[in-house]
Design brief:
Blueprint (H helix, E strand, L loop, with lengths): L1 H24 L7 H28 L2 H5 L2 H15 L3 E7 L7 H22 L3 E10 L5 E10 L15 H16 L3 E6 L5 E10 L2
């Protein structure tokens, strides 16, 4: 809701302001040099503010989640940096896909972002697999959504997460677990030196 308000109100107003200032600064012959320079500065400030608002809108809820779904949005997030490094990305969705609540989808996206950032920074992987799996609970009162991110990189010893060497990664994993807890899910991490890493997030989604 906040993202939509920012888009429909603030961003649109800044766009209109930028267009208005553009129409003025295109005719500098009608202005004193100092005035033209000041208006050009104001136009650049408005453009910078608009870019900042757009980044904030994306941070609140990436448009890709609504446009292409969770798996493809995660692929799009990391594709440039990883594929430039020679990493091949595999994306799959299994089971009958069902619409997730917005807050669940966004939390899974943020967890996936952090996991993929860890791959990019630490894993030295050749391949990354992103899988979204939907399956019904045994009682059929809801669905479980599982996000799996697996790489074939160098891996690590999860027991050392609290150590100084992996302190940055440890903070990231703690954040992922906290996000999962907030939506009633859990994070499972399997890794070993030389054997890559698998991260799974499972979230129950109950039918009304």
């Amino acid at each position: 809701r906040v993202a939509l308000e920012l888009h429909d109100e603030t961003a649109q107003a800044l766009t209109a302001l930028t267009v208005t200032l553009d129409s003025v600064v295109r005719r500098p012959d009608r202005l004193a040099p100092e005035t033209a320079a000041r208006l050009q500065e104001a136009r650049q400030m408005a453009a910078n503010m608009l870019e900042g608002i757009r980044r904030l809108i994306y941070a609140l809820r990436p448009a890709a989640l609504d446009d292409v779904g969770l798996a493809a949005a995660l692929r799009g997030y990391i594709v440039d940096s990883l594929e430039r490094s020679g990493v091949t990305i595999h994306v799959a969705e299994q089971g009958p896909a069902k619409k997730m609540p917005d807050h669940v989808e966004l939390a899974l996206y943020r967890i996936g972002q952090e996991a993929l950032n860890n791959v990019a920074r630490h894993a030295r992987a050749n391949n990354v697999w992103i899988t979204i799996t939907h399956y019904d609970t045994i009682t059929h009162q809801g669905t479980v959504v599982r996000l799996t991110i697996r790489d074939d990189g160098i891996g690590f010893d999860p027991a050392t997460i609290a150590g100084a060497v992996l302190r940055t990664r440890g903070i990231g994993l703690a954040g992922m677990r906290e996000r999962a807890n907030l939506i009633g899910g859990q994070v499972i991490i399997r890794s070993a030196p030389g054997n890559g890493t698998t991260l799974e997030v499972e979230v129950p989604i109950y039918n009304p």
